[in-house]
Amino acid sequence: MKKYRIPLIILLIVVSIFGALAIYQKIFKQTPENILDKFKSIKCYSCDVEYLIINSRGEVKQKANLTSTNSGKEIVLNFEDGRSQVYKNNEIIISNKLTNEKFTVKNSFDKMYKLAFVENIRENILLNGENMKKSYTEGNNMGFMQVEYNLFDNNKELNKCKMFINSDSKTLTKLIIYDDANKERVVVTYSNFKVQKYI
What we know:
With 199 residues, the protein is of the alpha+beta class. Helices cover 24% and strands 48% of the residues. Strands 6-5-4-3-2-1-11-10-9-8-7 form an 11-stranded antiparallel sheet, with helices on one face.
């Protein structure tokens, strides 16, 4: 029995080392490319969002639930105040439960809210290509990837974005939209982010 004890101990040590290396690779070897690739593969999701809109008159907060279904072909933004915006077939169906109003506008009508959608972020990242800036930071026992990219709508008030992705969940935590003077104009905070489907 003793002659089997030493090989068994060596085997356990080897297995432990490989296990520790695998855990280290998973936890500590997050690369910006891996995090961004996983984020870009999000297809269907839901989350709570808070839009903090900043202008010369002050600040306005708007809270909503954001849901993307049907592979991103239908996106619904339900605001706490009873408003609803459904993005579908290049149109936005806008309704209000309190006033019973309902009308449809072109997708181009919305210049701001849609910038917080994963689908829109993914498109802007592709348009920026190598021009976007990526960095990785850690704080409060969490890792975050920051991505800065430009917007191409010729809108001085909505000129560029900086987004923050949780490195563990690969989901959005915050999006900051700047004007052409580099002042914060919109801050979007995400919570309860749940991914239903990946590409």
